[in-house]
Amino acid sequence: xxxxxxxxxxxxxxxxxxxxxxxxxxxxxxxxxxxxxxxxxxxxxxxxxxxxxxxxxxxxxxxxxxxxxxxxxxxxxxxxxxxxxxxxxxxxxxxxxxxxxxxxxxxxxxxxxxxxxxxxxxxxxxxxxxxxxxxxxxxxxxxxxxxxxxxxxxxxxxxxxxxxxxxxxxxxxxxxxxxxxxxxxxxxxxxxxxxxxxxxxxxxxxxxxxxxxxxxxxxxxxxxxxxxxxxxxxxxxxxxxxxxxxxxxxxxxxxxxxxxxxxxxxxxxxxxxxxxxxxxxxxxxxxxxxxxxxx
Length: 295
Prior knowledge:
Elements: H1 6-17, E1 27-28, H2 31-46, E2 52-63, E3 69-82, E4 86-93, E5 96-103, E6 107-114, E7 117-124, H3 125-129, H4 140-147, E8 163-167, E9 170-178, E10 184-193, E11 200-206, E12 212-219, E13 222-223, E14 233-234, E15 237-242, E16 247-258, E17 276-279
């Protein structure tokens, strides 16, 4: 199998990337520690078995498909999120909703309602997975990835398992793959502190060419409201950067609680939007491969 030859090249590239040239402070930790780290993270995520309802403050900067920049600064937000990919992310002002991102089993979307623009961008997950979708600056998929709302895979589709690297008190789970030309790369990195193995503090995702696509930093982990000390831990602060498109999102949550209502929260009908509508499904190559989707 082609991943059998991955390890030596990957290790050499990791050491070189650390700038160590044979005098590395990067240590490869035993397999059982990597398995334990994955278990602890996934054990916590497994407790998020119901939708989460969140309120906080968000600041965003992004460009739309026509290159126009949009900025929200210090806006109140209401968020509902549920595994594996249901999302309602509402950005508000004194006048009401000014932007919204969302997704369900079939669709993902983003709309803005501003004095000079009233538009929705939307697409289907099937087209996105097939590589037939144009990029939207801040798509719900990457937000869900940053949120860590589903368990991390122990094995990528080609059979490769993650490595655990130690640099002082910092731990880094790296998910290695070979691209279509046989070059080794790290597609995802999950950082955490040695004394908190179940609490990821940073997630870095790369495209198939190795360029960073998303860099998310997570902080202020506490138990979901009203669940007590043994409840699942969730981040209350997010700082997410998409370097390729220049988009940013900074989010501070005041409350995170389980949602008790059965009312649907992620339904979508593009025809119901009162404004411009642009479908992102297109016959073009994918620019945003998912974890393990390297060809």
